[in-house]
User: Fold this.
Amino acid sequence: MDKESNGLSNAELALKYSIPKTTIREWIREYETSGHDAFKILNTRKNNTYTAEFRIAVSSE
Assistant:
């Protein structure tokens, strides 16, 4: 997915939030597959740099 519903590309989201494009793509893919629950699961993993709420906000922006 290159463009989100609001017109921002993954690259633009990455720049806006200072997050790698690959991370944005991964979050969007997980959000499209599992919705909000995908990020609740991710919060239990070792990398908790970003909250579930933040991941949802970026993925749905």
Summary: Confidence is low (pLDDT under 50) at residues 1-5. Residues 20 and 60 are 17 Å apart (CA to CA).
